[in-house]
Automatic annotation (TrEMBL), chain A:
Membrane topology: Multi-pass membrane protein
Quaternary structure (record): The complex is composed of two ATP-binding proteins (UgpC), two transmembrane proteins (UgpA and UgpE) and a solute-binding protein (UgpB).
Protein name according to UniProt: sn-glycerol-3-phosphate transport system permease protein UgpA
Chain ranges of the ABC transmembrane type-1 domain: 74-282
Subcellular localization, as worded in the UniProt entry: Cell inner membrane; Cell membrane
Protein family: Belongs to the binding-protein-dependent transport system permease family.
Lineage: Bacteria, Pseudomonadati, Pseudomonadota, Alphaproteobacteria, Rhodospirillales
GO biological process: transmembrane transport
Length: 292, 284
């Protein structure tokens, strides 16, 4: 905090009031409701409800569809984070090296940040459209018997590809700025000692980028958890049979389309716990980075 | 720096392939949107322009029949603009004020207030959609701009950006201002706000794009077509593509997709330097 501050007065309360008011109404209240409802069991018509302690949680954790969705979310998040980070790092290293056209390449690779996830989903949806999609035709012309409408793995492939495509640009921006933050003297000294560009990358550049990579890992996992909702909702809609429904998508399907309030709230609370762990982890890491 | 000729050529090839990977899907959607639906249906997606640009885009912008609802794309663009601007402006003002209080004042509830604000980072809107929807509906705010924008502002990301920035402002400024007799309000308006202009602009750009691209919340909130944003609108059009046994209106759906994409992309490309600076510096 600041060494010099204003003393006690009602002024700061006036400044935080709008934020606190909005948080109280649109955040604390709904969050408390989610926790409260996760302990309730509603009857089929939503007329009455009774307090059932942890039964909703037991039901959720023991249901095979939730476990299936949890496993899919874990694998999907990891793949999206890993692949998009790998592609963007590869591109960023090359973009950092080129001299001619560097600015154009940068623009061409970073604009994707502004594409909405559902728009990305629609573009993928159209490329894999069985009627006219070029990628659908391409894969089948190689004899893959590609069918994302019925085959769970193919559907997961489509969702992963779209999610990676959408995320490459964000990672690229961070990696490029990380690379440009490495002092020129370090790279020049390394060039004198070692001719192999590949070895220089693994022994010098990559370790220096480790904080960026770690930070991006957290960002990408959060993205794969939450923001891919838009992609899934307009491409596979979780089909076939919930094989591509992430946990967030399942909360929406069960709560809004299936009207299972207790179960959906219990799922929300479980998600809250998972995200909290992830965020605390991230903040502890960042605090440590500041001290170094 | 030493660089072999082959390495340099390889760099360009890789970067061109990477750029194509990013651009091709949007390019295909764009040029396909300038063909007739019969042509697309028979020949598949296109890689070059057809001659129906004005016809398709004109229909989607001004004719409600083309968007399958009661609103034209023009009205949807307007709604998206309201959401993007409202979200960005609201977020900048509210989070800047809160960050000012947290950084520059000593007050009794400072610590609990900080933790309440921090806790919003733990739970994105996506995990509490069902109760949020109930709260907004019980306040009678469904299908209003207020109900659309305010719950999205509840997350405190902006507050943390500004907190970080204010902490880097030299202490001497406040000392000098106080010697000159400036009060808290005066210091905020005359010194801190002008000092933060680039930071405000960067956060504004990022938040505009984030607001424009919102999907899940508007999807739940707006049951009335009049409030559809363009991102929601394209979903509705795609959903109704196969209805009625006609040839699907793919060109118009593509046209809508392109129109939803152009404004935020333009903003990001035009203000590229500011945007990158804001993104990289604030998210660290």
């Amino acid at each position: 905090m600041k060494r010099v501050q204003f003393g006690h007065s009602p002024v700061p309360y006036f400044f935080v009031a709008p934020q606190i008011l909005i948080i109280a109404i649109f955040f604390l209240w709904p969050a408390a409701q989610a926790v409260y409802q996760s302990f309730l069991l509603e009857d089929a018509f939503g007329m009455s409800s009774q307090f059932v302690w942890f039964r909703n949680f037991e039901d959720v954790l023991s249901s095979s569809s939730w476990l299936k969705s949890a496993i899919f979310t874990a694998v999907f998040s990891f793949l999206v984070a890993f692949i998009s980070i790998a592609i963007s790092l590869f591109l960023a290293v090359r973009a950092d090296e080129v001299i001619r056209g560097a600015k154009s390449y940068k623009t061409l690779l970073m604009w994707g940040y502004a594409v909405a996830p559902p728009v990305a989903g629609l573009l993928g949806n159209m490329l894999f459209n069985p009627l006219m999609g070029d990628l659908y035709k391409l894969f089948n012309s190689f004899g893959f018997e590609f069918n994302h409408i019925q085959n769970a793995n193919d559907a997961a492939f489509v969702v992963t590809l779209i999610a990676v495509w959408k995320q490459v640009s964000v990672n690229f921006i961070f990696f490029l700025s990380g690379l440009q933050g490495i002092p020129k003297s370090v790279t020049e000294a390394a060039t004198l000692d070692c001719k192999s560009a590949e070895r220089r990358f693994w022994t010098i550049t990559f370790p220096l980028l480790a904080p960026t990579t770690f930070f991006l890992m957290v960002i990408n996992l959060t993205y794969a958890f939450f923001e891919t909702f838009g992609i899934i909702d307009v491409s596979t809609k979780g089909s076939p049979g919930g094989a591509t429904a992430t946990l967030v998508y399942k909360v929406y399907v069960d709560g809004f389309l299936g009207a299972d309030m207790g179960g959906s709230s219990a799922q929300s609370v479980l998600l809250m716990i998972m995200v909290s762990v992830l965020t605390v982890f991230q903040f502890r890491f960042i605090e440590r980075k500041v001290h170094y | 720096m030493y660089q072999s000729k082959w390495r340099s050529i390889a760099n360009h090839v890789i970067l061109i392939l990477g750029s194509l990977f990013m651009i091709l899907p949007v390019w295909i959607a764009f040029v396909s949107s300038t063909h007739t639906r019969e042509f697309l249906f028979q020949n598949g997606l296109q890689f070059w322009f057809g001659g129906h640009f004005l016809e398709n885009y004109g229909a989607i912008l001004f004719d409600t029949a083309a968007t399958k609802g009661r609103v034209t794309a023009l009205e949807m663009l307007f709604n998206s603009m309201v959401l993007g601007l409202g979200f960005a402006i609201g977020k900048v003002i509210i989070s800047m004020m809160a960050a000012y209080a947290i950084v520059y004042f000593r007050f009794r509830l400072a610590v609990p207030i900080f933790w309440v604000i921090f806790s919003t980072l733990l739970l994105p809107l996506e995990v509490r959609i069902v109760p949020s929807y109930e709260v907004v509906s019980s306040l009678g705010l469904l299908n209003t701009y207020t109900g659309l924008i305010l719950p999205l502002i509840a997350s405190a990301t902006g507050t943390f950006f500004f907190r970080q920035f204010f902490r880097s402002v030299p202490d001497e400024l406040l000392e000098a201002a106080r010697l000159d007799g400036a009060g808290p309000l005066r210091f905020f308006i005359d010194i801190l706000v002008p000092l933060s202009v680039t930071m405000i602009a960067a956060i504004f750009i990022i938040m505009f794009v984030v607001g424009w691209n919102q999907y899940l919340w508007p999807l739940l909130m707006t049951t009335d077509d009049q409030l559809y944003t363009i991102v929601i609108g394209i979903k509705q059009v795609y959903n109704s593509l196969y209805e009625g046994g006609q040839i699907p209106q793919f060109p118009k759906a593509f046209a809508l997709t392109i129109m939803a994409t152009i404004p935020p992309v333009l903003v990001v490309v035009i203000f590229q330097r500011m945007f990158v600076k804001g993104l990289v510096e604030t998210e660290k």
